Amino acid sequence: MKLPTKVIATIVVLVALASTLLFVQHSSSKAKTVRLTPHDMEVIFQEMLPPQKQQQIASDPEEKKKFVADVKNLLAIAQVAEQEGYAKRPELQMQLSIQADVALNEAYQKNNPDAKVTDEEIAAYYQAHPKDFDDYLRANPKAQEVQGPQREDLKKRFGEFRVMAERARKQGIDHNDVTNLRILIERSSSLFGAYMSELQKNADKLVSDAEVDQYFKDHTSDFDEVRVRHILISTQPKEQAEDEEEAKDKKPAEKPKTLSKEEARKNAQTLLERVRKGEDFAKLAKENSDDPGSKDKGGEYDFFGHGKMVPEFEKAAFALKPGEISDLVETQYGFHVIKLEERRTAAAPDGDQKVRQQIVDKLKQDKLEARINEITATSSVVVPEDFDTTPKTPTQAKNS
Hints:
The structure is a single chain. The chain has 2 domains: 223 residues, no CATH class; 133 residues, Chitinase A, domain 3 (Roll). The chain has 17 helices and 4 strands. Strands 2-1-4-3 form a 4-stranded antiparallel beta sheet, sandwiched between helices.
C-alpha cells in the first residue's frame, strides 16, 4: 500500500505541527553545537522560504541580515532548550519524532513515488514497537478523539508512516543535506516554541511594581489620550447600493463616484479653509465627511491613545493643542482635516489597571527580547552571513 501525501498531512495536523522539516539529535544533557556553512544557509534559503520571501531577501541587504539573525536566534534558543532537557519531556518527545519522520517520508516518497507499505510490514512494526501508537495518542489530544473504525484506520496510517520513515533511514536519506536541514529547523522551532512559552508564563515575575512605576514616570506622555473631530474626504471606492433593486433604480450618473487624489485634496482644502474661517466643524463633518463611523457624531472620535489609529492620523492628532486644527493629513483612506478637542493624561498605573497592564506587557516583551539577545550573543551556534541569495527559479522549484 502506498502512503498518500494526505496521510502525512493528517498526522501532521493531529500532532499540531506547523509545517515540515528538521535534524534528529540524540537526546543528551549537552546539545551538539550547530555550525552552519554557507551551503547550509543557501539550502535553507532556497528550500524552506517561499518565493516571495526569497525575492525580498535577495533585493534588500537589511532583510538578509534579519534572516541571518532570526536563524541564529532560533538555533541558539533551541540549543539552550536542548541543554535544559526539553527534548526529553514526554509532551515534546513524540512531536519531535513525528516531525523528523514527516521530513523523511516526504524525501523518501520523492525518490520512490511508487513505494508501498504492506499490512505485514505494519504488523511487524507494531510487534517491534507495541507502545508507539498509544504514546502517540497520549501526546495528541485531538488524536484521542478519533474512535471506532476511524481509530483503526489512523493506527494503520500511522504504522505506514513509521515504516516509510524507517526505510528512509536505511537508505541514508536522513543524511541528505536538504532533509537533514529541514529536520534541524523544525526541531529547533519546536524547542524554541516550548522554551519561549515557558519564559512567557513566568514573565510576570520578572516585572516589579517599582519598574512599572518608574516606566510610567519616564514615559508619561506615551499614555496621553486625545479626543478629536475630523473630516475625511475619501480616495477609496464609495459604497455601492445595498441591494440589486436599489442599484437598478439608480441612473449611472447617480452612482457614487471615486475621487482622484487631486480631487479629494482640493475638496479637503476647501473644507479646511472654511473651518479656519470659523464655520462650525461638527456641522461641516456631518455634511461632508466620508467616514461613516464618525460623521453622524460631527466627526468625533472619543478618547484614544497611541497605537489606535493609522500612523499619519495619530501623529497629526497628538501634535495639536486643544482647539487647534491640522493641515491636510493624507492617509491610506484619503485626506483628513483634524481638530483636537481635548487631551488628557492617563492615571498613574496604581490607579488605572489598563495602563498598568500596558506597561507590564511592554516590560515583559523587552525582558524576553533581552533574554533572547543574551542567549544568542553567548551562544556557540555559527550562522554565516556571507552566502548566495539567488532565488530558486520556477523550473528548479518544480524539479525539486
